[in-house]
Amino acid sequence: MPEAIREVSGLGPADLTDELLTATTPVVLRGLASSWPMVRAALESDRAGSDYLRRHYQGATIGAMLGGPDAGGRFFYNDDLSGFNFQPVHAKLTGVLDEIEAKSQMDPAPTIYVGSTTIDTCLPGFREFNDLQLGARDTLASIWIGNRTRIAAHYDLPDNVAVVAAGHRRFTLFPPSQLQNLYVGPVDFTPAGQAISLVDFLNPDFNKFPKFAEALKHALVAELGPGDALFIPSMWWHHIEALDAFNVLVNYWWRQSPDYMDTPTNALMTAFLSMRDLPPAQRKAWQEIFRHYIFEADEETAAHIPPNARGVLAPLTTDGARALRTQLLKRLNR
């Protein structure tokens, strides 16, 4: 059975410390947002929670995903991974909320999901009353709204605080080391931008995915209700189930790196182009180069080179990153 995620209670929106927000393992923050008006409305009823969102909505078009009742709430690929089992649409939030309410008594119901929508664009003024204080961090605050849904295990580069504002959600997390046991699908063709595990967590096929049994030995799980939050460190795999007919999640993403740094995904995609198909001995040599210059780099790596001659071996700056990006573009476009 998966282990429970470590929990902390008694904190409020202004009590998040740097120690918590730089942790390298997940932490459940029970009742963190229990004072939010959105949470109090959702505890009153689904309709009260929906009405609270409507009061802040000013008509912006949003993106949503619609899945049939046969999908069981799981947003995924079609049978041969050539497409997906849902339809992306553009809609008004009021229409989405009306549809969620209209289908709330159906079982199974069509799946309705608004994912990763910027709060300040969609719901102006919402964060004035429903927000966390995360210090000087440059956060992206997003909202996720839907009925009973299942989001396949995936990782995100930023650190993340996810706040359950309505309904209940079950989170199943895995450390980055479990990549090989999660049977991850295509990297460049994904349902929502991130590569996902192909394992159906509610009905795992251990004949097809035998190493998933090992992944489960390392799994951490928590069920969160309105006002509860979860800190998910960068690169941790997370599978999310929304368990009620009306669910709202608010999350905050930020990176612990300078703005001038590109996403490491760019390096991965470039490595597919330039290294993955090299002869084994050459791949091994490049593995050693990356170990030396990147993964185990420290102050000794370039200590034998005069500071004025270290080039990219020196600590990056905004100007240095801009110059390096220019060099890379020239190389890629030659």
Automatic annotation (TrEMBL):
Q: Which residues form the JmjC domain?
A: 76-269
Q: Which Pfam family, an example, fits this chain?
A: Cupin_8
Q: Fetch the InterPro entries from UniProt.
A: Cupin_8 (IPR041667), JmjC_dom (IPR003347), RmlC-like_jellyroll (IPR014710)
Report the SUPFAM superfamilies cross-referenced here. Answer: Clavaminate synthase-like
Quote the SMART domains the UniProt record gives: JmjC
Entry protein name: Cupin-like domain-containing protein
Q: What is the lineage of its organism?
A: Bacteria, Pseudomonadati, Pseudomonadota, Betaproteobacteria, Burkholderiales
